Amino acid sequence: MTDDNNRVHLAGRVSADPETRVLPSGDEVVSFRLIVRRSAAARRRSKQVVDTIECSAWSATMRRAVSRLEAGVEVEVTGELRRRF
Asked: Between vectors from CA 67 to CA 29 and to CA 26, what angle results, nearest 5°?
């Protein structure tokens, strides 16, 4: 049996300037959307050529770094995938 692993590595373009929000708990989060081009194999199965991924930075260090991003800049993101429904 293999160990479970929740790691992602994305490379793409920031779609718009990041947004900072203060949650009801008082915590801050900085969010941005990353546009990631689909692989050639995926494009053969679908007309959609990109995916838009919502990314959030929670720690103070990451919030500062992410808040300096600008629309159109290319970045690489690593971390864990978390989904909210």
From this structure: 25
Alpha-carbon Rg for the chain, nearest whole angstrom, is 15
Candidates 48, 50, 13; CA nearest to 34 is 13
Cα–Cα distances in angstroms (integers) from residue 24 to residues 31, 37, 67, in the given order: 16, 34, 20
What's the CA gap between 34 and 23, in Å, rounded? 22
Q: 4-8, 33-37, 61-65 — which is least confidently predicted?
A: 4-8
Give the tokens for residue 40. 């050639």
- Band the pLDDT of 1: cuts 50, 70, 90: low
Hey, which residues does 66 pair with through a beta bridge?
none
Weakest-pLDDT range from 45-49, 52-56, 69-73? 45-49
